[in-house]
From TrEMBL:
InterPro entries: Acyl_CoA_acyltransferase. One of its GO terms (molecular function) is N-acyltransferase activity. Belongs to the lysine N-acyltransferase MbtK family. This is Acyl-CoA N-acyltransferase. The lineage of its organism: Eukaryota, Fungi, Dikarya, Ascomycota, Pezizomycotina. Residues 48-80 are annotated as: Disordered.
Length: 484
């Protein structure tokens, strides 16, 4: 395994290099801007038993977890193998050491536990960007079953209580943060966290991608007393670095535990909704390896001027940059002029965006690749939408839906990237959202194929006054993560 570079959602880069018995994670940006990461940290990762081919053989002990227990099926000491590629349930890792920057240059993290959580999150971000292993399980009962008919399991990695993670009460704190889990939900009888109850923690692919990364990424402040140059330079000179006290990406959605109160809108009883992100605010960013660019989502703006993009971009030369010189109203007028778009959205009207801004159950979104606009979306609560009135009890209180307009021809081949990112945001923005809905027109056959490939399943057709719709739903329990 050669060096790899991780592009984090906030634009920071981490280089992962093989070292003896593990991997070294090093920040590429420590000297260029405010950075939360230490100089580096080392993890130990290995495969326990199995043959590393991705099959999770519960009969050879030690690695796979039983469906009803947090302990290995076989208590025999597992055999360790060098990590070469992910397996379904045989991989284990822990943080073995940390190299912190000089305290003269950076203030220590206010919460060491939070810093460890961030390093573990980045480690898992790297791990779940690796090629996914086969999901079939080889058990004693399924040995003779053809591979296509074998039972399937979740992709998991075990987080061991070892190295840095042996700190007092550290594993319980990480579990309460929602970063790691255990299948053993008993209180236990031990007075400390050193017993077997905390020895078998894990993270699944599904669990990781449904945990908001913004809860774990944060920024250290430079120690200005020991900075010879102008305070904040070059740290403060990085485009997109927020000023002190300024709201960072998605902060308006950081705390989602609103008390559920109810109100009535147009004879529909529904929960009181949290305010959406602000006009022009970027609320989602993610580097998509298959595209090689950053996908960003921001709230549309009524400003007559272009909305400047200050978020992360890739190393690719900018293309179609002229689109960044248009206001959002100008973009929508341009896109509606395309016959392909107007066939589904109709002709552009001057108050199109104003009406979208006034909606109490939805908000308008501009999608961007490396800051270049490519499409328009409307994210809505199903309960209050016209869709909710047609499906009745099938609409849960916190179901989300989305309307889609892709204006740029060059962006049309990237459906899985932005569609699964919209799902990613919806499921992370509020953990009460159990499903995401789409209702494209039935004659939009090409888009419906993409939707089904992304995991949406057709539930019915609906005869709206303005269209015959294909109604599909993607449930949280079936979603493993965004397209990479």
């Amino acid at each position: 395994m050669g060096p790899q570079v991780i592009h984090l959602p906030d634009g920071q880069n981490i280089t992962v290099t093989p070292v003896f018995a593990g991997l070294f994670f090093k920040s590429n940006d420590l000297s260029t801007h405010q950075n939360a990461f230490p100089i580096g940290w080392t993890i130990v990762i290995h495969t326990e038993d199995g043959d590393g081919d991705g099959d999770s053989d519960g009969s050879n002990g030690g690695g796979a977890l039983d469906a009803g227990s947090s302990t290995p099926k076989d208590e025999a000491k597992p055999h360790l193998h060098s990590f070469t590629k992910p397996t379904l349930q045989h991989d284990s890792l822990f943080i073995s050491s940390i190299s912190n920057p000089s305290s003269q240059d950076f203030k220590p993290a206010a919460s060491p536990t939070r810093q460890v959580a961030m390093m573990l999150w980045v480690t898992l971000y790297w791990y779940f960007h690796q090629p996914a292993p086969p999901t079939t399980l080889v058990t004693e009962s399924s040995k003779l079953t053809p591979e296509a008919g074998r039972p399937r399991g979740d992709w998991r990695v075990r987080v061991k209580r070892d190295g840095v993670l042996r700190g007092r009460n550290l594993i319980p704190k990480l579990e309460r943060m929602g970063l790691i889990s255990s299948l053993d939900s008993a209180v236990g009888t031990a007075l400390e966290d050193s017993d077997e109850t905390w020895a078998h923690m894990f993270v699944s692919q599904k669990m990781f991608w449904q945990t908001p990364g913004r809860l774990f990424l944060f920024t250290l402040q430079p120690n200005y007393k020991n900075t010879r140059s102008y305070p904040g330079s070059p740290a403060g000179s990085r485009p997109g670095s927020p000023a002190v006290g300024e709201q960072t990406l998605g902060q308006s959605q950081l705390y989602i535990s609103h008390v559920s109160d109810y109100t009535v809108t147009d004879q529909v009883r529904h929960p009181v909704r949290p305010k959406p992100p602000r006009m022009g605010e970027v609320f989602y960013t993610r580097f998509v390896p298959s595209v090689g660019q950053y996908l960003s989502l921001r709230v549309a703006s009524l400003s007559p001027k272009p909305v400047p993009y200050m978020g992360p971009v890739s190393q690719k030369p900018p293309q179609h940059a002229h689109l960044g010189g248009l206001s959002d109203t100008g973009l929508l007028e341009l896109w509606h002029a395309n016959p392909r778009v107007s066939a589904f959205w109709g002709k552009f009207v001057p108050d199109f965006l104003i009406s979208a801004m006034k909606s109490r159950h939805s908000f308008p979104v501009i999608g961007m690749w490396d800051g270049v606009p490519f499409g328009y979306f409307e994210l809505y609560w199903v309960k209050e939408d016209i869709l909710g009135r047609y499906i009745g009890r099938e609409a849960d209180d916190w179901d989300r839906g989305c309307h889609v307009l892709i204006g740029e021809e060059w962006a049309r081949g990237r459906v899985q990237s932005w569609l699964t990112s919209l799902v990613h945001w919806a499921l992370c923005a509020d953990n009460r959202t159990m499903s995401v809905c789409l209702e494209p027109r039935v004659d939009n056959a090409r888009f419906i194929q993409h939707v089904e490939y992304a995991g949406f399943t057709k539930e019915m057709e609906i005869a709206f006054p303005h269209k015959q719709a294909w109604f599909g739903r993607l449930r949280r329990e079936t979603w493993n993560g965004p397209a990479l």
